[in-house]
Automatic annotation (TrEMBL):
The keyword Transferase applies. Belongs to the transferase hexapeptide repeat family. This is UDP-perosamine 4-acetyltransferase. Substrate binds at residue 70. It comes from Belnapia rosea. Keywords: Transferase. It comes from the Bacteria. Residues 4-81 form the PglD N-terminal domain. Acetyl-CoA binds at residue 146. Transmembrane segments: none annotated. The active site is at residue 137. SUPFAM superfamilies: Trimeric LpxA-like enzymes (SSF51161). The record marks 138 as: Increases basicity of active site His.
Amino acid sequence: MGERLVILGAGGHGRALIELARDLPEMEPVGLIDAAPRAHAMLGLPILGDEAVLPGLLASGIRLACVAIGDPAARLAAAARLEALGFSLPALVHPSAIRARSASIGPGTVVLPRAVLGALATVGRLAIVNTGAILEHDTVVGEAAHIGPGAVLAGGVRIGARTLVGAGAACRPYVAVGADAVIGTGAAVVEDLADGARVGGVPARPIGGPLG
């Protein structure tokens, strides 16, 4: 039996983290925290209440927590509240992920099934490396960034804090993307992007409307 873990957030990302934690022999997910749950349980795991129950859970010996919130600002704020209470936020890496020995992963980060982290890849705290994403050698992913399913970061790419790289998007080698940017689904980034950029298409160009 692994160390007990509570999951903050009972949405779609919460379902993904339940399955991830259950695949880790060192973890035992015991329940979810959500202020407005749609049910009493999710995938057989109870929803324990809102954040008011957290001090009691900590007192009962549950020391580990993870944040299942997609929005990066909300994820960072929730993590800060958990850490202030005394919870630890471990990195959760699925057993099917391929991780080079020299790759580093920050606390609170989640790496989902079949992701690949190459030599000297660096992933900051509270980032999400989603299913099947590829981070090639020397990539740097900033704090609370989200690399979407099937996205590909070629060697030396730098992704700023809180940036979203959409599903199936790709970045050419050594591109630098600023903080708080959004790269749309399937986009091909071939040049550097500034903080706050919103791009889509092939090659990626600025876009003002909704991004896929």
